[in-house]
């Protein structure tokens, strides 16, 4: 029986439940980072809102709401997945969102800033993004099936699955 777990704004869920579907709705300028270990069958989704907690000496904002920010939420997503049995070498990473849903010509583009922050954090950690759908002007809704690793993205009336099954099968067959 499928169980849908909603990942809200500034939220994160890691699951080993093969019947679970992680879902987040109306990703605008926010970014969803999805990670999946096809061998351990551990998956996680982070829905962060802003690039940086601006953590000063006390780091209070990042401590109080770590999943709100890329700089605190992404490392915590990965650490929690490792604790659940995922391996960094096997993780398949997908990034979605980062749209500019409010039409403006100013430089205050949170979606682009969120995307850049994520790329820098993952690059510094030696993590490759396998698939990303970022930018544009339309919000996205995401459903991530833990049992299969399948990701379905909806935007308006359009819906598509992200083709990652072949890479997952190769990784499992090779024991990676």
Number of domains: 1
Are there runs of 5+ residues with pLDDT below 50, and where? 166-176
Query: Widest sheet: strand order?
Result: 1-3-8-9-10
In the CATH hierarchy, the third-tier topology is known as: 60s Ribosomal Protein L30, Chain: A
N- to C-terminal separation?
Answer: 29 Å
How would you sum up the global shape?
globular
The percent range for strand residues is 25-35%
Helicity level, as a percent range? 10-25%
Tell me the Rg in angstroms: 16 Å
Number of strands: 10
Count, helices? 4
Largest sheet data: 5 strands, mixed
One letter per element, helices H and strands E, the order comes to: EEEEEHHEHEEEEH
**SS-based structural class?**
alpha+beta
Second-tier CATH architecture = 2-Layer Sandwich
CATH structural class: Alpha Beta
What do the pLDDT scores average to?
A: 89
């Amino acid at each position: 029986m499928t169980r849908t777990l909603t990942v809200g704004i500034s939220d994160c869920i890691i699951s080993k439940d093969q019947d679970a579907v992680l879902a987040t709705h109306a990703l605008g300028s926010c970014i969803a980072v999805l990670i999946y270990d096809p061998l351990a069958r551990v998956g996680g989704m982070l829905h962060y809102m802003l690039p940086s907690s601006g953590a000063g000496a006390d780091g209070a904002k990042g401590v109080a709401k770590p999943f709100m920010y890329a700089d605190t939420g992404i490392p915590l997503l990965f650490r929690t997945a490792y604790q659940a049995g995922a391996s960094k070498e096997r993780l398949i990473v997908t990034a979605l969102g980062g749209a500019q849903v409010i039409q403006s010509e100013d430089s205050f583009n949170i979606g682009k800033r969120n995307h850049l922050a994520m790329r820098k954090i993952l690059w510094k950690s030696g993590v490759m993004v396998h698939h990303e759908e970022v930018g544009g002007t339309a919000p996205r809704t995401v459903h991530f099936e833990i049992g299969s690793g399948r990701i379905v993205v909806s935007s308006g009336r359009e819906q598509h699955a992200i083709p990652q099954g072949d890479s997952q099968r190769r990784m499992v067959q090779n024991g990676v």
